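tool_call predict_complex ligand=glycinamide ribonucleotide
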Amino acid sequence: MDHWWSMSTKRTDALRVAVLASGRGSNLQAVIDAIEAGIVQARIVAVISNKKDSPALERASRHGLSGLFIDPKPYAGRPDSREAYDLALLDVLRQHDVELVLLAGYMKIVTRVLVEAFANRMMNIHPSLLPSFPGLDVQKKAIEWGCKLAGCTVHFVTEGVDEGPIILQAAVPILDEDSSDTLAARILVQEHTIYPRAVQLFAEGRLRVEGRRVLIEQGKPVGDAVIGPS
Ligand code: GAR
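tool_result ok
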């Protein structure tokens, strides 16, 4: 079955995006910068964090964006704590008429509640070439495994962690002298390129999900570092 997940006709209003972030927020910043530079036709209508002191919230406020901390504590201890938290989050996303959700260093596993509400409308960025190295500390794992290539992946979010259909990937060589920090820094540069690019592809209605595959409707080149169609 074919599905085009965003409008394929040229839209006049900007795509309404929410960003979920727990930490530093450099990927959030990359998307903000791309929007402000006119490279990405979208509007960030909400930045939401599960961490009160997240630098991502500070970045949002510096750019005049609505930032919101949703405290996980009131939901802790309940058997359905994760789902209850996601229901609260979903409520906020609906209030803001969000069309696309971006997980950007969001260190909380999202539940079926969000995954179903935003099926093929929620993306994540992960610092490995999935399906290799899902989870945490993945740059260190790639070095220790002896890989010659590492990289990053933007994918749609499904219930399985880091398992959803792959939208874009960028490869980064692993050097003999790399530490996980030096490798992570070089991967991050690529993350900041492919995440905004994936958002723009979505905004242009050029992403089609067929089973596990995300097909990119041909158009403008999507860039050299990207393994995929141009
Ligand atoms: C990024 O490297 C992102 O790929 C990674 O966390 C970092 C967040 O940085 N995400 C994951 O590992 C998710 N599995 P940022 O807060 O500066 O965007």
